[in-house]
Structure formats: structure tokens, C-alpha cells
Amino acid sequence: MKQDASQDLATIVANAGKGRSWRYLIIGGLLVAIGVGGWFWYRQRLEDQNAGPTYVTEPLKRGEISLEVTATGNLAPTNKVSVGSELSGTVAEVLVDRNDQVKKGQVVAKLDTTKLMQTNASTKANLASAQARVVQAEATAKESEANLGRLEELHQLSGGKTPSKAEMDTARATRDRGQADLQSAKASALASEAAVRTNETDLSKAVIKSPIDGIVLTRSVEPGQTVAASFTAPELFVIAESLERMELQVAVAEADIGRVEKNQKAVFTVDAWPDRNFSASVTMVAYGSKVTNNVVTYDTELEVPNPDLSLRPGMTATADISVASSKDVLVVPNAALRFTANKETTPQADAGQKKSFVQSLMPGPPRRGFNQGGGKRNGGKPGPRPPSAEKEKSHVWVLREGKPEEITVETGLTDGSRTEITSPELKEGDAIIIRAETATAS
Fold first, then answer.
1. For all residues of the chain together, what is the average pLDDT?
2. What's the pLDDT score for residue 2?
3. CA angle 428, 433, 439 (to 5 degrees)
4. CA-to-CA distance for 361 and 35, rounded, in angstroms?
5. Spatial distance between the Cα atoms of 223 and 242, rounded to a whole number of angstroms
6. Range of 250-264, 351-365, 385-399 with top mean pLDDT
């Protein structure tokens, strides 16, 4: 029995030893596989880093570029007249309505003239009475003049004895009074004539006429309405001249006003016709400024043709005024002017030299030109700018034989997305680099 027990124990120990050896083999194999995989991953990462970026390019093309100033404003008639009444009274008739075409001198409304006609009749009667007093005064003056003549003749024939000096003085005074009464009567007649003319003028003003050829924009009066004219004439109608030509009044910001000049062309849109572009031209640029919400603007007027009367006064318009343009010039996207090739976007010069894993973790020397053009040491401020020229100097990068090459260019007009450039080193069709896409390790 003891011998069998010893044999069983030896068998169990042997089997246990075999199981542990298999586990050690499996763990060792896994560690080797992880190490090999890590080594291949690291090699692939180094290859990706040394492979360099992929450049996105666009062929250099010729085109047209224009600089525009955008401003908003409202449409208005070229001439708009407010028609009112200088007289107070009751409106008897209204002869036109809104949108009616009227001619200069056409009657548009009438006031009740009953009281005016009565007053005019009274002033005419006063004029007739004054004219009669003039005739009477003339007769009296002639009589006194003749009487004085007879007395003077008698005084001469009598040798100055008769009539007496007192009688002569009385005759002269009577003559003078007659002349004065005549002048007073004539003055009264003139005053009566002026009163008649005033009443006749008021009668003519009771008939309200259009001062211009145009169209009635608003009507603010109805028959039977009482019109009270005091210090200002009440507005009855607003009449605009022909709307076939209109005026666009816009406000241009102070940053853009220096480029806006008379006779420049413009295109504008209105909300009523969102799919249409209307043409206009600048007719006036104001020197006086306005300040609205702390923004300085200058009023600018544009002439607008409106043959089909699709535009109406008061419409809000957004105008693009063309202040400069260039045709058949080389243009590039603005992204090309912002692109700069550096060590992050170009292949390493020592790409052929492999670095060890420890070397790749060690910090390298600082980049060249870190403080040039504004680094942390100078507060991020740009360095000194070159002397100004007619055109600003910049650069673009061209992909030639698979390598980026920097080209200095002169920039011209820009519309915000594209910019005009000139350089003797560039030609149409060159591959202009827009951006670089660096490969990322998987």
C-alpha cells in the first residue's frame, strides 16, 4: 500500500511540472509577438515622419478682380414736393388720389371760397368809395386853386389894396388843404386796391395746384376736412417727379469714403426683387459726416434708372460701388499668400539618418529665426517693416519638381478671397501651394 501511494504522488508532481512549462512557453511567445509588433510600429512611424507633407496646389490663372465698397441706404425720388395750403378753411373738393399722374399747374384740390368772395366784394366796394373820394378831392383842389388865382389877379389890379392880406392867406391855406385832401384820397384808393389784390390772391390760393409734373405719393386730405394754416402750411399731398429716374442715398463708412468718387459705377439689390441687380452711378459724395451709434459715415447719392417703375421710394437697398478693377492679371487665393513652408511642412534635411528611440525623445536645438518677425521674446510683435512702395511685397510657394520654392511677389487689388500678384518668376499654370497636409501616424 505504501509503495502505491508513493508512485501516485510522483505521477502527480511530474504532471504539474509539465503544465507550468507550457504556460511559460505561451507567455514568452506573447511577449515576443508584442516586441516585434512594437518594433514594426516604430519603424513605420519613423518612415511617416521622414516622408514629408503632401502639398495641395492650384494652377496659377489669369482673371479679373475688382475692389468694391458696400453701403446700405434707401431709394428716394429725385425731387419730392410737399403740397400744402397757405389758407385756413374747409376743403370743398379733392381731385386726385394716390398714384395719379399730375401735370404742373393741374388743380388737385379746392377750398370753400364763400367767405373769401364776400371779403373780396367788401374790399372792392371800399375801393370804389376811395376812388370817388379821389374825384371829389380833385374837384375841391381845382376849386380852391381857381379861387386863389382870381384873388391874386384882383390883388395885382388894385395895387395890393384889395383883397386884404388875411383874405389872401386864407385862400392859400384852402388851396393847400385841397391838395392834401387829394393826396389822402389817392392813398386810401391805393390801400383799397392792395386789399382787393390780396383777396384775389387768397382766392387763387384756395385752388391748390401741382407745382411739378409727377406722381402723387401720399394724400392726407378729404372733402369737408378743415384746414388750419398757422405758422406752417399743413401737408395735403406729397408729389414726386417722374419715378423713371430715382436717387439712392447710402451711408459710406469713413474707412471706405476715400475710395469713393463721382461717376463710379455701382450695382445694388432690394428685398422686393432679390434675384435682380440694378445699376447706378455715384453723383455726389458729401464732405459733411454723420455719427450714428459711434460710427462715422458720409452720405453718398447715386443716380438710378427706373424705366419699368419696379423700384419705389423708401425701398432699402444694398449697393456695391466699384472703386477699382484689374483685368487679365494673375490672381491667387489668399490662402496661398498665408502659406509658409517650414520644418513642420518640409522633409527633414537629415531624413536619411535614422535616429534611435532614445534620440527621438531628446529635445533638439531651438528653431532658426524664432525671434525673427515676432516670437515670445519680443512680445509677439512683428519686426520692422520695409519701406513702403506702390505695391506691398509678399511671397507665394510654387511646387517645382516635387519641391516647394518661395517666390517674392507684389500684391495688388484683393476682393477678400483672391489677390492680384505680379512677379517675373511666375507664369500662368504654375502650381501654387495652398496648404500642406502632413501624414499622420496610424
1. 81
2. 46
3. 150
4. 19
5. 27
6. 250-264
Distance separating alpha carbons of residues 69 and 55, to the nearest angstrom = 35
Tell me how crowded residue 345 is: count the other CB atoms within 10 A of its CB: 19
Could you tell me the three cell numbers for 223? Answer: 372733402
CA nearest neighbour of 301 among 286, 279, 317: 286
- pLDDT tier, 12 (very low <50, low <70, confident <90, very high otherwise): low
Is residue 203 scored above 80 in pLDDT?
yes
**Distances from the Cα of 118 to the Cαs of 86, 113, 128, in angstroms?**
19, 9, 16
* Alpha carbons 151 and 149: distance in angstroms, whole number: 5
Q: How far, rounded to the nearest angstrom, does the alpha carbon of residue 214 sit from its chain's CA centroid?
A: 27
Question: Per residue in 312-342, pLDDT tens?
Answer: 999 999 999 999 888 889 999 999 899 888 6
H-state helical runs in 85-157: 114-157
Element housing 44 (H / E): helix 2-51
Q: In 158-208, where does DSSP find H-type helix?
A: 165-205
- What's residue 387's pLDDT? 39
Joined together, the cell numbers standing for residue 10 give 510522483
pLDDT reading at 228 higher than 80: yes
Domain locations along the chain: 113-205
DSSP character string of 297-361: EEEEEEEEE-TT----TT-EEEEEEEEEEEEEEEEEEHHHHH----TTTS--TTTTSPPPHHHHH
* DSSP assigned state of 370: T
Query: Distances in Å between the alpha carbon of 4 and those of 1, 9, 10?
Result: 5, 9, 10
The HSE-up count of residue 296 (CA atoms within 13 Å, CB side) is: 8
d(CA 94, CA 103): 16
- Pick from 250, 127, 102: nearest CA to 191: 127
pLDDT, tens digit, 9 for 90 and up, residues 141-175: 999 999 989 888 888 888 878 888 888 889 899 99
Query: How many beta carbons lie within 10 A of that of residue 349, not counting itself?
Result: 8
pLDDT at 95: 94
| CA-closest candidate to residue 241, choices 76, 75, 77 | 77
More confidently predicted of 354 and 324: 324
Q: Which helix (H) or strand (E) holds 41?
A: helix 2-51
Q: What is the pTM of this model?
A: 0.57
Containing H/E element for 22? Answer: helix 2-51
pLDDT at 321: 94
Q: Which helix (H) or strand (E) holds 66?
A: strand 61-77
Yes or no: say if 404 and 433 are a contact pair by the CB < 8 Å rule.
Answer: yes
Distance CA 430, CA 398 (A): 7
